[in-house]
């Protein structure tokens, strides 16, 4: 308190000083430069928005690349406030008629747009989700380019994470992803097996969305055979598939609803004939499945390196499955810390870790920038940068100030719904933690 009081007194002395005009002038100049920079940035983005209507595909691709760079490295609040839905529909047009490269770029723009808008605005974030589902679903059915499909799945995960308001909307997107994880579950039983990158992306995207659904609200009819499928994927040759599947399994155990992801246990537990015996059979099946998975993750935590396999990936696998083993045996989740600016972003659950890894992957080099300035992501991870508001007024445009301060702003609307969502997730984590060893006895 003394230091702050001293700083306030110093400020008052400067305000009464004759040199105050210099300080005020420099601040005004700084604000003017920031506003001019905003205008130039918006001008470039608006030109690119116009170019998305051009007939030449290469012109549209260049415009999308510019927009991606702008949205990755800066929060484009002012531009989004004026052009959100227009940009969305231009990108959806690119997805409908563009090349695989253009579709991939447009998907990334839509994801970045959703992250910028933030959760909870029914006129923006939810509209992005609902308007995007049909063209994204159609694009997944046309062509088999792995890069395009992976980009669509990533985009679908992000816009659902941000704009999905109820479990049904989230599970709708998860079902689309599940058809790539388990092709036989889709309408086309003869669908070809997905490539390794697509399968890995689909598993990671599916797990990312599962982190937003409380365990007791999971639709057991949809996912009742998923745990056995993930267990089978742990035996695949590709390490990236094993790692993604391991994270999914850890998350299922964390939310404490293993029986909802197991078809045989579900059938046994719901039968009305010889209820006592069936209940014991269901419990025995769950215990057996848990034991099988525990043996699998133990073996993967000490796997010897194979010929031609990268040591870095091997170490990542060993470390991950060592953490999963500790979790299944003792209930301890891995704790991680990541330095953001001068502060630490901490995770203490599988849910948080999966969210962090997915968003780092999607935002790439822009992750730190967004964590320091994007209040939606800060709320997701309960992260508050030191000196968050210091100097913020000098670099924010008037439009951005309105966006943050207005009671009806995207950010303020988002906070209420997001905090409600986070409380539900937190409750689910607590239940899951205690259910790791207890749920199998139900």
From TrEMBL:
Domain named Interferon-related developmental regulator N-terminal: residues: 23-329
Span of domain Interferon-related developmental regulator C-terminal: 374-425
Question: Composition bias, kind Low complexity: at what positions?
Answer: 22-32
Under the heading InterPro entries, the entry gives: ARM-like (IPR011989), ARM-type_fold (IPR016024), IFRD (IPR039777), Interferon-rel_develop_reg_C (IPR006921), Interferon-rel_develop_reg_N (IPR007701)
The protein's superkingdom reads Eukaryota
Q: Which residues form a coiled coil?
A: none
Query: Where are the residues of the annotated region Disordered?
Result: 1-42
Family, per entry: Belongs to the IFRD family.
Q: What is this protein called?
A: Interferon-related developmental regulator 1 isoform X1
What species is given as this protein's source?
Nelumbo nucifera (Sacred lotus)
